[in-house]
Amino acid sequence: SSSPPSAPPPTSPVVTTSVAAPVSQLVRVPAEGGSVINSAGMLSGYGKVDLTGTLDVCGQVVANGQGVDRTLNLTAFGSIQNSTDSTAGGPSPGWYAEDHGRLVLRLQASKGGGALNWGEDPADPLLNMVNAVRLSDVQTAGEVGPVQLSLLAPIRGDLPSLSTLDGVPIGLWEVDPSLAEINSADLTIRYNDAAVLALGDSESALSLWTLSDGSWQSVDPASVVLDTTDHLISGVAQDFQYFAVTAPAGNGSDIANLIAVPNNQIAPATESVPEPVGLGAIALLGGFLARRRRR
User: Fold this and answer.
1) What strand order describes the sheet that includes 54-57?
2) What does pTM read for this prediction?
3) How far apart are CA 167 and CA 250, in angstroms?
4) CA 178 to CA 166: how far, in whole Å?
5) 218-239 exposure pattern, b = at least 16 Cβ within 10 A, e = fewer
6) Phi, psi dihedrals of residue 141, rounded to the nearest 5°
7) DSSP per-residue string spanning 69-99
8) Tens of pLDDT, residues 178-204
9) Which of 39-43, 125-129, 131-135 has the lowest mean pLDDT?
10) Short-list 180, 286, 195, CA closest to 248
């Protein structure tokens, strides 16, 4: 693959905000060597956030490399929760990677202890957050479990070739790099249904893929279960370092930078100086979100 473009880091933070959001809702999330802004339900940027405690995500977290392979590292947070879920038809809270971004989060044991969650409240039995992942029945060499996963923008320059993937990746993850691979695991993914819609595809046409030793293989179709109501795909994956959900090319739309809020609803960068945050918990509560009864 081609080398990523080199560009100097921005000299000032980039603020992404909803048009309807008052400036008073903007808060700065400290980052080391990067630019991360929390604004009206969206946290977007890159860098390492060294805050600890609980990250309460009721909006969208976007790893945005701004044209260069960069990482938004949130592994310092001890736990993830989403205290408010979205209503039907509203923007979907979740995790996104665009413009050469990589998003790294810790895995958390589920409430019952039988699975590992990535990007989902461990107490939640259902994956509600877009691109959240659940691993169960995990087997690795030496029985050493994975600690983290990364969500990747598919245009990064450091990715293995995607040419043998059948279709367009609407979600792409890398296993904890401290492990050579995961020998076996039951994967469940809350896929990005907005990306499927943008492509003009049917959710029933999605596929689940894994990569090992440089070769992409489709997950055994006999093990794959697709739930188009809750937007979940699951299957038993073997010997993998990366995994992906793909959709047919459909109408050919470029979804490389697709996030849940359409671009035409995002305001230009603002000169407003966000307010610093010093708490161990950050609430990303957008005005577009309403509480709904958990299942």
Assistant:
1) 79-81, 54-57, 282-284
2) 0.78
3) 9
4) 28
5) ebeeeebebeeeebbbbbbbbe
6) -65, 130
7) -EEEE-TT-SEEE-SSPPPTTSPPPEEEEET
8) 888 899 999 999 999 988 988 888 999
9) 39-43
10) 195
